[in-house]
Design brief:
By secondary structure, the chain is mainly α. The chain is built from six helices and four strands; from the N terminus they run ααααββββαα. Among the domains are: 175 residues, Helix Hairpins (Orthogonal Bundle); 45 residues, no CATH class. Helix content is 84%, strand content 4%. Helix 1 packs antiparallel against helix 2 and helix 3 crosses helix 4. It is rod-shaped and about 160 Å long. The two termini are 35 Å apart. Keywords: Coiled coil.
Length: 327
């Protein structure tokens, strides 16, 4: 019976962990993973567009570099012609114009090269930053997957524990409904056989009783044997079961098999707290029993049509219990 009570409370704890805490945590992780996967998809799309843009600008850069090289050579040529004919006034003026025009075109070409080079550098930097963000998101996903696997393991452990506790409850329920009544009936029959033999023979020697009442002895032994086998099986399967629970007294998470508070029968206690509070719990339980019996008696002795309220008796009982505790 005690196993059934404790296991029912523990089962509720594990169900809360499994269906409320763990499942909600897993749902949150799945949402975060999907968000990050979508983020990676968007970043990858952005990176591909940047790569295409960079390839286009790199092609432009190659073309403008060739053009700039031509303008640089043309400028050098016009500069040489201008210096060669500098001393000839009419020719020098013509070559000066050609030189200035070549110089300006070369300057424009170099400026275009610089602009496109900056654009390519900006694309490369953006691609690098996008790749970095993708790697960070991927690392977060990997971390979340590990955490999700741990949560899955905890969920499976909780499911296994719930199933094991339910098996224990079914076993003890069947034991109480089937095995226990048989053992009690056999014991009662054996006691009656002893009493009957004692009345007849006037002797209560066990060997004589066993000899003359062999049929009852066989039934008794068989019932006790089956009872013992059932208890041994239960002990081997559930006797060393370990569960995680919070002690209601010390508020520390414990691993083991909890004890049931004798007064607050939904509270679980660790071994040390149970041993420490055992005497006080027994006393408190007895006091509550006395108070409950006194209150019930007072209510039963109320005259018909009495205007006294139940709360007045509750107050009286509380005062009585307080004086009892002081004594």
């Amino acid at each position: 019976m005690k196993f059934y009570q404790i296991s029912s409370i523990v089962e509720g704890i594990y169900k809360y962990r499994k269906y409320i805490l763990i499942d909600n945590y897993q749902a949150k992780q799945n949402g975060e993973i999907k968000f990050l996967e979508n983020d990676i998809y968007q970043l990858n799309h952005q990176r591909e567009m940047l790569k295409e843009e960079m390839n286009t600008h790199e092609q432009e850069l190659n073309d403008i570099r060739q053009y700039a090289e031509q303008r640089r050579n043309k400028k050098a040529k016009r500069e040489k012609q201008y210096h060669d004919f500098y001393h000839v006034p009419i020719v020098a003026a013509q070559y000066k114009k050609k030189y200035v025009r070549a110089r300006d075109k070369n300057s424009d070409a170099e400026e275009q090269v610089s602009k496109i080079r900056c654009t390519v550098d900006a694309c490369q930097k953006a691609i690098s930053e996008t790749t970095k963000l993708m790697m960070e998101s991927q690392k977060k996903i990997e971390s979340l997957i590990i955490q999700k696997q741990e949560a899955d393991d905890k969920s499976k452990q909780a499911e296994d524990m719930i199933a094991e506790l339910q098996d224990g409850q079914k076993f003890w329920s069947s034991f109480d409904n089937n095995q226990l009544p048989i053992a009690l009936k056999a014991t009662q029959g054996f006691i009656e056989a002893i009493q009957r033999h004692t009345r007849k023979s006037g002797s209560n020697t066990l060997s004589q009783i066993v000899h003359y009442e062999s049929e009852f002895v066989k039934i008794f032994r068989l019932a006790l044997n089956e009872y013992g086998e059932a208890e041994a099986y239960a002990q081997s399967r559930w006797g060393s079961i370990q569960v995680a629970f919070n002690c209601a007294k010390c508020n520390i998470c414990q691993v083991g098999w909890p004890n049931l508070d004798k007064v607050r029968t939904t509270d679980l206690l660790c071994d040390s707290c149970y041993k420490e509070a055992r005497t006080s719990m027994i006393l408190e339980k007895k006091i509550n029993s006395v108070i409950g019996a006194s209150r019930s008696h007072q209510l039963q002795t109320l005259p018909s049509g009495s205007s006294l309220s139940i709360s007045s008796f509750a107050t009286s009982a509380s005062s009585s219990s307080a004086s009892t505790i002081k004594r």
